[in-house]
Design goal:
The chain is of the alpha/beta class. Helix content is 46%, strand content 9%. It has 2 domains: 13-54, no CATH class; 56-329, 3-Layer(aba) Sandwich (Rossmann fold). The chain has a 6-stranded parallel β-sheet, with helices on both faces.
Length: 342
């Protein structure tokens, strides 16, 4: 519908490498299965890399920045103008995700896929904007077909840059006021659930604010659900450029052979969209953490996945996924360095 590259196949995993990794784990000086989900994760990763000794480094965080028209509905404690300030902080290396990236030795790439206002100092920012923010989903579709295609392609291009640079794992994140509202709207549409079950506090809403957020989502669903067909159309009508870019990135990861670590609500919504396009893509996606946002739980249940961590993080920006990457990296160290029974 939007681009031929979306139909390119997802690469298969190596069953023989998985079997070799499992056998390797069975010979280590530890009780069988004692490392729990870490062992399952290493085996999965071995199949994707085609090696019983998987190594996810170097890794890169892809942070997609965009504004959302629905912010005008007062669905966040912060004004839309806060988005550009958050981007500026990330560019200066002073945001949470920038600090985490620096101390874990991870690359951080910040991509403008739809900021309403560009930062005053945009050095280091990759501009691949699909428009100056989305439209207000209460009254009209978030984006048109061309903008959807541009945002999807921005995600793919980021992964192609990563592949050219030898990156072995991608961590997806997003930044922008209103992002949890549009993610919850897409999740509600795809899962067929009530807005109240997916609308959470976001960046700090009180119960009254969450009720207002649910009403806004319901208004958008009443407008867009009739005749809605397919997950990508749900993103076009109800979502954001960030969700589209993340979905495009995840699909490209499976097509190019780079595993991806999934973050919280927005990233999990994008993952469901991507998996609906390519069901076999799920093999390439690792779910980093169980978010404190209530909307993520029905998403991970629908995809039948188990997050690595549960830290009650609800910040977004890839922070929970980055914390999980540190755990995944440790699992790979254990695979390589625990001694064997003799």
């Amino acid at each position: 519908m939007t681009a031929s590259w979306l139909n390119q196949p997802i690469l298969p995993c190596s069953l023989s490498a998985q079997a070799a990794a499992r056998k390797h784990l069975e010979t280590m000086e530890k009780p069988l299965g004692a490392l729990g989900i870490l062992e399952d994760t290493v085996i999965r990763l071995a199949g994707l890399y085609g090696s019983p000794d998987p190594n996810p480094d170097p890794a890169r965080i892809l942070l997609f920045a965009s504004d959302h028209g629905v912010a005008a509905a007062n669905v966040s404690p912060h004004p839309q103008s806060m988005t550009v300030s958050m981007v500026q902080g990330a560019l200066r290396g002073q945001s949470a995700i920038a600090v985490m990236a620096r101390h874990l030795g991870l690359q951080l790439e910040i991509i403008n896929v739809g900021l309403a206002v560009e930062p005053w100092d945009s050095r280091g920012l990759i501009n691949q904007s699909a428009g100056p923010g989305t439209c207000d989903i209460r009254f009209r579709p978030a984006m048109d077909e061309e903008q959807l295609a541009l945002a999807l392609a921005a995600g793919r291009d980021a992964v192609l840059r990563a592949a050219a640079d030898g990156i072995r794992m991608v961590i997806g994140g997003e930044i922008g006021v209103g992002k949890s509202t549009v993610a919850a709207a897409v999740a509600a549409a795809l899962l067929g659930v009530a807005p109240e079950s997916v609308a959470g506090p976001g960046s700090g809403l009180d119960p009254q604010g969450m009720a207002r957020k649910s009403q806004v989502i319901q208004q958008a669903l009443d407008l867009h659900l009739p005749g809605l067909s397919g997950s990508l159309q749900a993103v076009r009508r109800l979502g954001g450029f960030d969700i589209a870019a993340l979905a495009g990135a995840y699909i490209a990861c499976g097509q190019t052979g780079i595993p991806a670590m999934i973050d919280g609500l927005t990233a999990s919504t994008a993952a469901l969209v991507a998996i609906s396009v390519h069901p076999s893509l799920k093999d390439w996606l690792f779910f980093g953490h169980r978010s404190a946002e209530p909307g993520q739980l029905p998403l991970i249940r629908a995809m039948e996945v188990t997050p690595l961590l549960h830290l009650d993080i609800r910040m977004g920006e890839g922070t929970g996924a980055t914390a999980a990457f540190a755990m995944l990296r440790m699992a790979c160290f254990l695979q390589r360095e625990i001694s064997f029974f003799r």
